[in-house]
């Protein structure tokens, strides 16, 4: 029997000064995903309903009709995942948000035409205090040669679909050298892993780039060391020394 697939998220419950973990499980034998919430203060799990129509549809071959991204983004009191519906009749992407206070799932629609009609890899993140989406993909030029394009979308007013705004700016440097997008710092710099396996930051406004000097060595099964960045909520500068108290 095929193993189930899990999507996890950790959140802080501000109203009760508590922590919660969300686990979404997809079984091949069940058409709908199963969502469970763990509360730290009570040390208990309980199921919650996911009333999202697209997650209850099935494909003719019995496979999952959707893909839920992992890891997620915790922002504005909610956990956010990108969901891609892969039903034969349509291909829809949207944000699945789980409010940790009222424990209700909601849909947030993504901006239309994310990357000028190009199939994109999408990464949810936080940009200067707003929910944001980094999209990148490969397009074809007039000579049928592939080139990489990327764009940043920012939701200026949380939950208002009409407030999605495309950040325009010179992204050529990023598009040439990005191997993997990791997130943003608090001041709006992109954290990227280059094609040469270097961890760097890049300011899309000043064009300033900074090499952290951190070697990125591939681990077993070709998993990048920098995947830890995906599970870090915020990136801030620190005076903490890497080797402890030695100066």
UniProtKB/TrEMBL annotation:
Protein name: F-box associated beta-propeller type 1 domain-containing protein
NCBIfam families: F_box_assoc_1
Domain (F-box associated beta-propeller type): residue spans on this chain: 6-207
InterPro entries attached to this UniProt entry: F-box-assoc_dom_typ1 (IPR006527), F-box-assoc_interact_dom (IPR017451), SCF_F-box_component (IPR050796)
Pfam families for this protein: FBA_1
Domain of life: Eukaryota
